[in-house]
Design brief:
mainly beta; 4-stranded antiparallel β-sheet
Amino acid sequence: MTAADAVAPPAAPGVQMYRKEKSIPLRSGSAALYNNLSVLRLPGRQPARFSAVHGPSLSLLSAANDGLGFSHRQLQAKEGGMAVSTSLLTQAAWCVLPSRVLLVLTSQKGIQMYEADGSIMVYWHALDVTEHSPAQAVFARGIAAAGGRFICVGTSSGLVLVFDIPPKGTNIAVSEVLEQHRDAITDIAAELGRAPDGAGDLVTADDAGTLCVWSTGEEFALLGKIPACGCTCSSVKLWNGIVAAGYGNGQIRLYEAATGLLRAEVNAHARWIYALDLAPQTGKLLSGAEDSFVHVWKLSRNPDTDDVEIEHCHAECVTDTQVCGARFCDPEGNSFAVTGYDLSEIFRYGRA
């Protein structure tokens, strides 16, 4: 499909690319938050790590590839000291930089950065609640590693904070504040493939559906703004210069990062999309929504016309579940994991 009014075809009956594997139990259900699942794939045969937010705590799990062994711990977020937080977490994600991996948590009070296993908090940034009226919600949301040494985090006021991360230690600082959005940030994504010249390597999304494409560096530069389309953009990804955006009306839209041109529009889900993920080595796109469905798509560029193409590969119904997190577990997209609202386990799927 390449047309801007493309509609998702139903999965071919009997053709299944993935099958359900042994699930991972959670001690508490997942909250109904956008992108409420993070997966850290470790090198070699080390167990993968999973995390999901529930209220003021984060479930951290390590699970072996065969699903037979796993360990579990609850991370009770501490903010600005050793006191346990009473504020609700809004997201958690592992940020993989060339020199280190940090676990970043966002909440109603601020931004916390931990060592990858959650053992040590290395940085705490408080949100300034005095600048907002009492009726306005204050929170941070949207997390992405970018540019090799930065971590970007969004806020409810539409600001994007850029943190400069040293190779080690706690000398983390806000190096820049990006101020193009007027609505709460929903998601942030960095380029996962090889961006064409001028396409940018970071995209930010907000509650109104506005997207901003940036070029990272010592100073971040705004390359383009894709205007709001009447509904929230809840999740966004960037791959090979293609912006993949999921919306509250169930649509996935594909844009050219360099020009903002709409290249495809797919009626992917019957309800609000909560999560997108991309497998960088293959261009597979994963989408999960309130309609209990998870879909796998394949993005590509036609080598002759340079058109952006999207192909539907797989549909999975997670019965009676409001899907709130969906992530590939490997860079090829051969396996993925799913969380659902109040679901006390993480479902896993592998190649059939």
